[in-house]
User: Fold C2H2-type domain-containing protein from Buteo japonicus.
Amino acid sequence: SDEKRYVCHLCLKAFHTATLLHNHVNVHTGTRPYKCNDCDMAFVTSGELSRHRRYKHTLEKPFKCSVCKYSSVEASKMRRHIRSHTGERPYACDLCSYASKDAYKLKRHMITHSENNLPLSIPPLSMTDRIEYN
DNA sequence: ATTCGTTAGCGCCCCCTGCTGGG
DNA sequence: CCCAGCAGGGGGCGCTAACGAAT
Assistant:
């Protein structure tokens, strides 16, 4: 079943398997059983260690861009990169016309709408916008 | 049956760089 | 010209989920 039977005693978060719970508890306790042989980094899961080794030591980049020479360690990085070719901007700002190719860029952009920045960057509003400035 | 390794996917944060507008 | 603010591109890690292999 998809029941999450394994519950963390520290935060009550539930998991499908004992291994997932075990990894999660290691996050709480700071236990990092997977040590890198080539530096002093250590990780909770083998997957994190494996990725770290690709980034820092083996330099293996399995994901190749079909348009340019870019390659990446992670598929998500390749998807992000592809948007620089396609121009796709899935992350739209609710307060202005800005849209980002990257989720964090939108978050960073939102700082420009924060209280302190408002006088400096009043966004271009359409007739349908309903923002009120105090 | 349980654990482990791998892959996949989401997210967060940081850095460097280039552009632009104001002083 | 210089500087600050901002966005674009990318690197690296945190964490969870699913699944097959190994124990």
Residues 15-17, 20, 23-24, 27, 41, 43-45, 47-48, 51-52, 55-56, 70, 72-74, 77, 80-81, 84, 98, 100-102, 105, 108-109, 111-112, 117, 120-121 of chain A lie near DNA strand C (CB under 10 Å from a C1'). Residues 46-58 of chain A form the longest helix (13 residues).
